[in-house]
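>> Question from a student workshop board

For tomorrow's exercise we were told to take the sequence and the ligand below, predict the bound structure, and bring the output to class. My setup keeps failing. Could a helper post the expected result so I can at least see what it should look like? The ligand is protoporphyrin IX containing FE.
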Amino acid sequence: MSLTVEEAGRALADPQAYADDDRLHEALALLRREAPVHWVEPEDYRPFWAITRHADIMEIERNHQIFLNAPRPQLLPAALDAEVRRKVEQGAPALRTLVHMDDPDHRVTRAIGADWFRPKAMRALEPRIRELARRHVDRLAALGGTCDFVQQVAAHYPLYVILSLLGLPESDFGRMLKLTQEMFGGDDGDMRRGETPEEKMAVLLDFFGYFQELTAARRRHPTDDLASAIANATVDGEPLNDLDTTSYYVIIATAGHDTTSSTISGGLHALIENPGQLDRLRADPTLLPLAVEEMIRWVTPVKEFMRTANRDYRLGDVTIREGESVLLSYPSGNRDEAVFDEPFRFDVGRDPNKHLAFGFGVHFCLGAALARIEVRAFFEELLSRLETIELAGRPEHVATTFVGGLKRLPIRYRLR
Ligand code: HEM
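>> Workshop helper replied:
Here is what the output should look like for this input. Compare the format with yours to find the bug.
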């Protein structure tokens, strides 16, 4: 049965819709075609404009002095939104990461971490990333020919990379894995810690506790890692307060994790589903950088970010009023027929590939260079040893409106 535009709009605020790729893309294609700037009034969320065309997403991100990240950088259930506000009024800390900020704070705060993520710094980190990629392909080999690739391999590797960059001990990696999944798989029954906003809030508070201890330790004994750079950073000669320091760790530990693991799992799934593309890539490994870019477009693990207008703005034939929020649908922009030739074809040689999976403009993903190296290193290791691979069961997607991808990818394989 075909969808109406109203139903398609509501799908954007329905975690379950993201667990069904076909249904989601049917809805997004309809919106791009018939209502690219569409007012949505979902049941459990505040109303917003759904922005589904590539050009409109870029226009909004380019106008970052009008479309602000504060106070609502992402879609949150109205009940959670209210709970967070209530806790803050009672004096609990509120997360204030780069994605919650606008200029001038955003520019100054982003600069603190920026050097650690430049391609030059990333090249220095590359040997460690390769070692971790090799360890995880070894782990795949040790699993003996069948596994759930998401839970047993992909979920661990990017977290190891990011926690190594931060400088945390490997003994803490398990705890961080659980916390980041609880935080980002927030809408999915299999991932979340509890049902209530209080239980979700408890995840946030656990994060705060861990990172506050880390800041104190790095201030007492600075070391040569990103955690020390954050703990000892100054703005106008003053150290960051506890909240801003903790928020910095949180954005890096969380943003760098499920995004990249979802890309690797979804990329592998796409190669299994498109054996011709897998053969092409094996025959010509120089295609790998383009293949990585295509995996990132194909998966688009970040489903949305929001902006709120600080004055009336005319977008196409619609006026967005001051105070209204827009939801930038990256999966939609990345299948926009006006920009991509045959957008629903997975093409390891796609060039050009002007996808928006890392966003655009001043908030463009800080970890993009790192993510690209991680994905490439993993597939270089894997493809050099892979003999056969096939699905061993039905893949399943995380039900979330924010960051997600596959939560299960059962595979059968043979490695050299
Ligand atoms: C921001 C996607 C990996 C750190 C973002 C944004 C997107 C995104 C869509 C928002 C951009 C915007 O608002 O225009 C992705 C994808 C990844 C990935 C698809 C993997 C394939 C990483 C990694 C890190 C990271 C590995 C590093 C630890 C950040 C940070 C921001 C950000 C710190 C906030 C930037 C700001 O607001 O200035 N990312 N990301 N991301 N990402 Fe990533």
